[in-house]
Design goal:
Elements (H helix, E strand, L loop, with lengths): L3 E6 L5 E6 L12 E4 H23 L4 H15 L8 E8 L1
Antiparallel strand pairs: 1-2, 1-4, 3-4
Helix pairs in contact: 1-2
Length: about 100
């Protein structure tokens, strides 16, 4: 189960590398694609929960690092909720 990092650019222009314990993240995001803030959050929740479940299926316990990353994403998204048309760009996967 390969770890994959994915790089995003937040609405304020900052770049951040995010963590996924599974390559399943690649089934949910596309490199170079911008996502409206709420859609990005929804996809992140779906993808990171799926990644954590894959870890659970293989090792018998959920991945706390995936849930930590989701928590960071939720917090970051909250800071941009009041920006009209806020979007997050998923720039690339880092294998």
């Amino acid at each position: 189960m390969p770890v994959v990092h994915f790089e995003v650019v937040w609405p304020d222009g900052t770049t951040e590398a995010c963590y996924s314990p599974s390559s399943v993240i690649k089934e949910h995001f596309s490199e170079g694609q911008s996502y409206p803030l709420k859609e990005f959050l929804h996809i992140s929740e779906t993808a990171l929960n799926a990644a954590s479940e894959r870890v659970g299926a293989r090792f018998g316990f959920a991945c706390s690092s995936a849930m930590d990353q989701l928590s960071v994403i939720k917090t970051r998204c909250t800071g941009f909720e009041n920006i009209p048309d806020a979007a997050v760009k998923m720039t690339r996967f880092i294998d």
